[in-house]
Design a protein that fits this description.
By secondary structure, the chain is α+β, with helices and mostly antiparallel strands. Helix content is 50%, strand content 12%. The strands form three sheets. Strands 9, 10, 11, 12, 13, 14, 15, 16 and 17 form a nine-stranded mixed β-sheet that branches. Strand 3 (106-109) and strand 4 form a beta hairpin.
């Protein structure tokens, strides 16, 4: 194995920087050129068909057969002109990745036996992939194969160019079972988006602006990732199979000098970044920002915010694209939340906001008092939604990978809290105190309410709290606890459902007061004041990593759910099932199915890590250590033979003993871990089995790792079988 390590090191150190072909045009000229966007549709479709598609995108109305046939013909013609030979429905099953089944743009005329180009509207609108091979959580039996993908016209079709010079037309789609249950991430997200639009639009129309016809949820996901050399990746079986290193001693230099963050981007990595950004821009993905992150070999790409559904699609597409482009550069992109111990893991900060079709950011303060009451309305309702559903928000980011990262001084803890900043804290306190407000004729109602005192530039009036899981950052909320490998659609489905429900409740509360004779502005104020009082427990401005906060959170009766299996169970609480059913996001059957899938996924991933760890520990590490120990024993025997004083070879004897101690512990612990795994596998209940893997199997990981990491410092470097942290992280 050491031979493989040094071959990998030789390859990694002698890689040339790949040439990147820069387009001749400006970005504005080729941006979105591989998407079937609005401009393309307008130029290729009849006015009637274009209107039907536009209406479907805006309102979700159905597209008739004639229009779909015309769109299919135009889409095929456009795709073929771009070099596409195949098409696929591109969807997001509950595997955590995307899925596609490529069909050629031709069929056989059975009368003549000749090939004919074919792409009907029916193939565009709906397809039938085998659903039996995708996770369903018991919704369907494995022998029931029917599932349907259906075109989502709100997300533009796109051309994916493959490395071999071919291209495929990809059609973003939902994925549902034969009995119409959602089997993907997109379907519930679209429902949640529709509900928050309905709720927020009703508030705007009745209280603030009758011209508003639509409220759009927006998202900007900051994608963190690691980049390492392909050869070094291939020489680490744990990275290949588990996505993270299950052992590895910390290098002398990690991130303690804080010299990597925002530092000069390594040339080879920069070439990769430029390459995937060009491809991303062709696909209409607004990748704008690139930089070094805190840990060595860690980086970030951040887009401009977009409509939420499109942003989620683009993030999934970007992850896929980055992997493909990295292969051209002989690099490997790691999206696991914690691929390396002792340095920061990776997250995906979800920057979320609400905006109107008239161009107003509902979470942006204004210089105008009237508009600030509107801002406070949506701001306070979001805080209230989090306060009432904190555990549900925690559950939305529960994954095996994120479990390694939460609370590790690199990511927010498992305790949900909201950071609003000193300025907004003062605003909320003062607003709450104005309990008795009387209005005389001619009084400026907004002046009396005190909303004229909100600074228009909140962003500059407070520092950012990087330890907060859910922070207000001036004109948006940043959900910082989302893991780097997560599909944004899942936590965003939960967040938008929570906020939609809260806005519906708010409107009911205000309307009751108005019906009782209360002036509209005073009614809004009274309800918001009550919400502020009941939401104080969730607002925290201090260090979320501190032990003091853990104690304080307990006093406030905030949950601290540290493990993934327990967090996932929150979805099945009666009140949460009722919430999702009330808004039509999930029915009880779908919720149970998703939780079952996630519990099973947790078991499988911990099981893989356990098996990888056991295999590498016994077959690679222990065997290597014992071989090295034999060399030391021979050395001591030789020293004895030539009468070297025992005191002089005592350090070598101590090393021999340490190797025996550590290898013995490893063998014992691996045997115990294997038995714990076998026992856990006999548990039928999926929740209890997941808990057993968390509490019994996973508990062996750190003790085994400790022994291996100690051996890494003892065994001759020339004999160590796999690339070390200093090599993986520093060679690029």
């Amino acid at each position: 194995m050491a031979i493989s390590r040094f071959k990998a090191l030789d390859l990694a150190q002698n890689r040339p920087i790949a040439h990147v072909k820069i387009p001749d045009q400006k970005i504005s000229e080729y941006y979105g050129c591989n998407t079937f966007n609005d401009d393309v549709m307008k130029s290729l479709l009849s006015p009637e068909a274009y209107k039907k598609i536009s209406d479907a995108i805006l309102s979700g109305s159905k597209i008739d057969r004639d229009a779909s046939d015309e769109v299919a013909a135009a889409m095929k013609s456009w795709a073929v002109s771009k070099g596409a030979t195949h098409y696929t429905h591109w969807f997001q099953p509950l595997t955590g990745s995307t899925a596609e089944k490529h069909d050629a743009f031709f069929d056989i005329d059975y009368k003549t036996g000749k090939a004919i180009e074919k792409f009907k509207g029916s193939a565009l609108v709906q397809q039938e992939p085998d659903a039996s091979s995708f996770p369903s959580g018991g919704i369907r039996s494995t022998f029931e194969a029917r599932g349907y993908t259906a075109w989502d016209p709100s997300s533009p079709a796109f051309i994916m160019e493959n490395l071999g010079g071919t291209a495929t037309l990809c059609i973003p789609s939902v994925f549902v079972s034969y009995t119409s249950e959602a089997l993907d991430y997109k379907t519930p997200l679209l429902k949640a988006i529709a509900q928050v639009d309905k709720a927020a639009t009703a508030v705007m129309k009745d209280y603030f602006d009758r011209d508003v016809k639509r409220v759009i949820a927006t998202l900007g996901p900051e994608q963190e990732y690691f980049v390492i050399d392909e050869a070094l990746f291939n020489a680490r079986p744990d990275l290949m199979m588990a996505g993270r290193t299950v052992f590895g001693h910390a290098p002398a230099k990690g991130q303690q000098l804080e010299d990597h963050y925002f530092g000069s981007i390594p040339p080879r990595v920069n070439a990769f970044m430029v390459d995937f950004e060009i491809e991303a821009q062709k696909l209409g993905i607004p990748a704008r920002t690139r930089h070094n992150e805190v840990a060595p070999a860690q980086f970030e790409v951040a887009p401009t915010f977009e409509e939420l559904n499109l942003a989620c699609d683009h993030n999934q597409l970007l992850i896929d694209l980055m992997g493909k482009v990295a292969a051209k550069h002989k690099l490997k992109v790691l999206f696991h939340e914690k691929p390396f111990a002792g340095i920061n893991g990776s997250g995906k900060h979800n920057n979320w906001s609400l905006g109107t079709d008239t161009g107003i950011n509902l979470l942006g303060p204004s210089s105008k008092p009237k508009e600030n009451l509107r801002f406070l309305t949506f701001f306070v309702n979001v805080v209230k939604a989090v306060a009432d559903n904190a555990d549900l928000l925690r559950a939305s980011i529960a994954t095996p990978g994120n479990e390694h990262r939460l609370g590790a001084n690199e990511a927010p803890p498992a305790i949900m809290s909201v950071f609003v900043g000193n300025t907004m804290n003062r605003v909320l306190t003062e607003f709450e105190k104005n309990k008795e407000i009387t209005l005389e004729k001619g009084d400026n109602v907004y002046m009396k309410l005190g909303v004229n005192k909100i600074p228009p530039l909140i962003l500059d009036n407070t520092d950012r709290n990087r330890t907060s899981p859910f922070a207000f950052t001036g004109n948006k909320f940043e959900f910082r606890a989302v893991g780097s490998s997560a599909n944004c659609a899942h936590p965003m489905t939960v967040l938008n459902t929570m906020v939609a429900n809260q806005l519906f409740t708010f409107k009911e509360d205000v309307d009751k007061l108005i019906a009782g004779g209360q002036k509209k502005e005073l009614a809004i104020t009274e309800v918001l004041q009550g919400y502020i009082r009941s939401s104080k427990k969730i607002i925290f401005e201090g260090n979320n990593y501190s032990e003091e906060w853990v104690k304080e959170a307990a006093k406030r009766k905030l949950s601290n759910i540290k493990d993934t299996p327990s967090a996932l169970a929150i979805f099945l609480k009666k009140e949460n099932v009722a919430l999702f059913e009330k808004l039509g996001i999930f029915n009880e059957k779908e919720l149970h199915a998703r939780v079952e899938i996630e519990w099973e996924n947790y078991v499988k991933k911990v099981q893989i890590e356990s098996r990888v760890l056991g295999d590498l520990a016994i077959n690679h590490i222990v065997s290597t250590a014992l071989k090295y120990q034999t060399r030391l024993v021979d050395n001591v025997r030789g020293q004895k033979e030539i009468k070297i004083p025992a005191t002089l070879y005592k350090p070598t004897m101590d090393t021999i003993k340490k190797i025996s101690e550590y290898t013995g512990k490893i063998q014992t612990l691996v045997e115990q871990m294997t038995e714990a795994r076998k026992k856990a596998n006999t548990i039928e209940d999926s929740h209890k089995r997941a808990l057993a893997y968390n509490q019994k199997v996973k508990s062996f990981f750190d003790p085994i790792r400790y022994c291996i990491d100690k051996l890494e410092l003892i065994v001759d470097d020339d004999e160590w079988p796999m690339p070390k942290y200093r090599e993986i992280l520093m060679i690029r």
